[in-house]
């Protein structure tokens, strides 16, 4: 075949996108290329920001939320620069834009990806009206440590649940024309001590089994961008980690998504202690193919110099610029860079209804002695509404809310005022230590038939750099619960928080406990519906609830250890005084508590009850290239009197293997609606690949990892939660 034909055929193979990008790139100067790698926060004074844009030194700008302003700046980029390359406008749209949905941890508790995808679609429709075409979410950091403030921002402790919810959010955003940005790549949630930005040490096989799968799922769902994480993983801050950003993201996964730094995470390499100065930081970042510098100015300040010194090749810049141009091309910005300046529509009935549904399905019923649902038809039922979170329009929105307006929030108190209720907050905010108001709440409680105690955390106590070393109820809430419980009246505790809290004592004192996380704009109507039985709770814990902070990290898919804790262990107060030096129990537990959590992963009660039949396993017909597959099914009966959703979960346990395997692993789940008295069959497919894991070997200073499924014996459950109290089926591969 002649060279000419070869060229034609290779050109013919090039997509229109590639041809467009190649052509534009070929016409760009080095300064224009570096400009595309620069992302600006608009807090600069106008003339500086506008000069940079007119000089083509800005590729993206974020935190502008006005179509007119976006168009004004966009006209500078499109009509006043040499090549007219449009800006892409970004924003932290994390769990809603104006209409706020539950925090992502609450979204994880819904176990309903279709609902989360719809929420993301509606969110994107709101944000795009203001010119926002790039959302800095979903965050898919699998988190085991509720001390970490950003546990609020992810979908919990499991890679399968997190992967499913993250991918749903990506599809939702991008179906409406807003690019997703899956973050933070990678391992950020493993920060030592649950302290934000702290060091992480993550073995390669654990990185690949637990922390990377949600990123791959989001990219497989089409995520158009990825954000570097702040943390140093095994000595390499992610912005300068070629193993993550090149070996895995580009070579293994073949991703063409744009990789953007986190805010200044490139220049952070200096305080990290990796780089002597910001010029060195720019070199390490470009050599790890961090492609856009968010608010770090290290690329605009040093890349041209590094190229002139021969330390960086222009081809490295070209790779990064391609990613930036590709994102803009795929968003259609070259053809339609401007935003219609019509009056935006926020808080539509559709969005508010979806926000309420999501808030209803994110609430987890953790305890109920029968007090719930409240019989509000009772003619004289006197309800006391109390607690620091009962009427907090802003706090119920949760962390990472810049555009949701509290005045649109509907609080639980506002909805309950339609009934015969009394209201005494007792405490005025979650950290309130002033107990003076508790007496009035107690006096009102004595006259009430039931007490609804809205407890928890203000929004500011979770999120970025909001880590807690103690995760009890803040302020004087525990004392307030003591006083309310002492009245002898039934207390229903509703918790609004950004993390699991160690509420074991309050759970014992309460007649019922509903965990609502921060439920967003429509938290009030959602909680009213659940508490009064107009909605049946279906939420399940997306993360383990520890009994005490000293148990952390505590998660369901842990190893058994060689000395598993037997129960009951000899706890500290049962050790005889003068006890001689002898082992008080050759097993793995703490003297203050066994290993059991307060509430396990995947747990949640309903107003009805469900009975699981036996699990049936069938081998699937052989399918070319798809390995061995099994079908697992189970009939679930609603044995109570409420129509309700149940979340059936598929767990496996590999009983022996090349390496130690976890006690349980979630492999699938299905949220199914079952009318009272009826049965539904859930069916899961399980493949041998799903039973595989990353293996590791070290020989002669060379280590290697590989993915493989062991020939082994497995147990498989279809169960209501990770305790797997149903009868497993045995499977041998
Ligand atoms: C913050 C966060 C990141 C966010 C970015 C832009 O520091 O780590 O998640 O998207 O900066 O605000």
**CATH level-two architecture of the domain at 363-531:** 3-Layer(aba) Sandwich
Q: What small molecules accompany the polymer chains? A: alpha-D-glucopyranose
Shape: globular
**Order of the strands making up the biggest sheet:** 11-16-15-14-12-13
CATH first level of the domain at 363-531: Alpha Beta
The biggest beta sheet reads: 6 strands, mixed
> Which value, in Å, is the CA radius of gyration?
27 Å
Low-pLDDT ranges: 1-9
Q: What is the first-to-last residue Cα distance?
A: 49 Å
Residue share in β-strands: 15-25%
Number of strands: 26
Write up this protein:
The chain is α/β, with parallel strands linked by helices and 733 residues long. Among the domains are: 363-531, Rossmann fold; 610-732, Immunoglobulin-like (Sandwich), CATH 2.60.40. The protein starts with a helix and ends with a strand. The chain is globular, with a radius of gyration of 27 Å. Helix 3 (30-36) crosses helix 15 and helix 8 packs parallel to helix 10 (213-220). The structure holds alpha-D-glucopyranose (GLC). The site of alpha-D-glucopyranose has 6 residues, from loops.
Describe this protein with a few key phrases.
733 residues, alpha/beta, Rossmann fold, Immunoglobulin-like, five-stranded parallel sheet, 26 strands, binds alpha-D-glucopyranose
Q: What's the topology here?
A:
Layout: H1 3-13, H2 16-27, H3 30-36, E1 38-40, H4 46-54, E2 60-62, H5 67-79, E3 88-91, H6 104-110, H7 113-128, E4 134-135, H8 159-174, E5 181-185, H9 204-211, H10 213-220, E6 225-228, E7 232-233, E8 236-237, H11 242-252, E9 258-260, H12 269-272, H13 278-287, E10 293-294, H14 298-308, H15 314-330, H16 349-362, E11 364-368, E12 383-386, H17 412-416, E13 421-424, H18 438-447, E14 450-456, H19 477-486, E15 491-496, H20 504-509, E16 512-515, H21 523-531, E17 610-612, E18 616-619, E19 629-638, E20 644-654, E21 665-674, E22 679-687, E23 693-699, E24 702-708, E25 713-719, E26 729-732
Parallel strand pairs: 1-2, 1-10, 2-3, 3-4, 5-6, 6-9, 12-13, 12-14, 14-15, 15-16
Antiparallel strand pairs: 7-8, 11-16, 17-19, 18-19, 19-22, 20-21, 20-25, 23-24, 25-26
The protein binds alpha-D-glucopyranose.
Residues 92, 136, 183, 262-263, 464 line the site of alpha-D-glucopyranose.
């Amino acid at each position: 075949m002649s060279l000419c034909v070869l060229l034609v055929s290779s050109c013919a193979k090039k997509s229109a996108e590639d041809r467009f990008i190649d052509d534009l790139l070929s016409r760009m100067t080095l300064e224009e290329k570096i400009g595309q790698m620069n992302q600006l926060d608009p807090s600069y004074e106008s003339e500086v920001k506008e000069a940079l844009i007119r000089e083509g030194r800005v590729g993206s700008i974020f935190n502008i939320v006005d179509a007119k302003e976006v168009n004004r700046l966009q006209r500078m980029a499109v009509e006043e620069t040499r090549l007219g390359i449009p800006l892409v406008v970004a924003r932290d749209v994390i769990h809603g834009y104006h209409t706020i949905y539950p925090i992502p941890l609450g979204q994880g508790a819904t176990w309903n990806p279709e609902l989360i995808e719809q929420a993301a679609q509606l969110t994107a429709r709101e944000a795009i009206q203001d010119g926002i075409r790039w959302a800095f979410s979903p965050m898919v950091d699998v988190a085991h440590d509720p001390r970490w403030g950003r546990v609020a921002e992810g979908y919990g402790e499991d890679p399968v649940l997190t992967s499913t919810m993250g991918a749903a959010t990506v599809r939702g955003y991008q179906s409406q024309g807003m690019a997703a940005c899956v973050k933070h790549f990678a391992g950020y949630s493993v920060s030592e001590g649950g302290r934000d930005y702290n060091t992480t040490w993550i073995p390669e096989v654990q990185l690949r089994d637990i922390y990377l799968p949600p990123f791959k799922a989001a990219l497989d769902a089409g995520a158009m961008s990825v954000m570097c994480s702040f943390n140093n993983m095994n000595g390499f801050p992610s912005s300068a980690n070629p193993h993550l950003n090149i070996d895995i993201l580009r070579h293994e996964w073949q991703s063409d998504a744009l990789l953007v730094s986190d805010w200044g995470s490139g220049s952070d390499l200096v305080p990290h202690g990796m780089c002597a100065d910001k010029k060195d930081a720019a070199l390490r970042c470009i050599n790890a193919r961090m492609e856009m510098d968010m608010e770090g100015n290290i690329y605009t300040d040093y890349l041209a110099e590094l190229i002139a010194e021969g330390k960086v090749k222009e081809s490295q810049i070209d790779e990064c610029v391609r990613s930036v141009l590709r994102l803009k091309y795929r968003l259609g910005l070259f053809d339609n860079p401007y935003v219609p300046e019509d009056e935006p529509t926020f808080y539509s009935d559709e969005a508010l209804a979806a926000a309420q549904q999501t808030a209803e399905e994110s609430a987890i019923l953790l305890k109920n002695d029968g007090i719930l649902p409240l019989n509000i038809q009772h003619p004289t039922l006197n309800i006391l509404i109390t607690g620091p979170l009962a009427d907090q329009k802003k706090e119920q929105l949760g962390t990472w809310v810049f555009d949701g307006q509290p005045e649109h929030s509907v609080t639980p108190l506002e909805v309950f005022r339609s009934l015969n209720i009394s209201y005494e907050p007792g405490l005025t905010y979650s950290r309130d230590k002033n107990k003076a108001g508790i007496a009035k709440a107690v006096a009102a409680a004595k006259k009430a038939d039931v007490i609804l105690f809205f407890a928890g955390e203000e929004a500011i106590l979770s999120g970025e750099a909001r880590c807690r070393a103690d995760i009890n109820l803040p302020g004087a809430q525990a004392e307030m619960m003591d006083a309310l419980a002492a009245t002898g009246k039934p207390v229903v505790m509703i918790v609004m928080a950004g993390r699991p809290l160690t509420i074991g004592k309050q759970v014992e004192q309460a007649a019922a406990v509903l965990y609502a996380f921060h439920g967003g704009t429509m938290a009030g109507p959602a909680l009213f519906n659940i508490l009064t039985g107009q909605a049946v709770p279906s939420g399940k814990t997306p993360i383990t609830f520890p009994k005490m902070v000293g148990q952390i990290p505590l998660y369901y898919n842990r190893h058994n250890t060689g000395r598993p804790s037997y129960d009951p262990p000899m706890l500290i107060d049962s050790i005889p005084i003068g006890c001689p030096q002898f082992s008080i129990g050759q097993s793995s537990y703490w003297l203050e508590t066994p290993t059991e959590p307060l509430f396990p992963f995947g747990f949640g009660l309903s107003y009805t009850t469900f009975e699981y039949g036996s699990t049936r396993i069938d081998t699937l017909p052989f399918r070319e290239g798809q390995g061995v597959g099994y079908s697992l099914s189970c009939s679930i009966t609603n044995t109570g009197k409420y129509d309700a959703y149940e979340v059936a979960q598929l767990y496996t346990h590999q009983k022996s293997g090349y390496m130690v395997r976890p006690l349980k692993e979630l492999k699938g789940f299905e949220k199914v609606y079952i009318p009272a008295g009826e049965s539904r069959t859930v069916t899961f497919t399980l493949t041998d690949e799903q039973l595989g894991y990353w293996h590791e070997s070290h020989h002669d200073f060379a280590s290697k990892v590989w993915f493989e499924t062991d020939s082994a014996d497995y147990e498989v459950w279809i169960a209501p939660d990770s305790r797997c109290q149903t009868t497993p089926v045995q499977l041998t591969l």
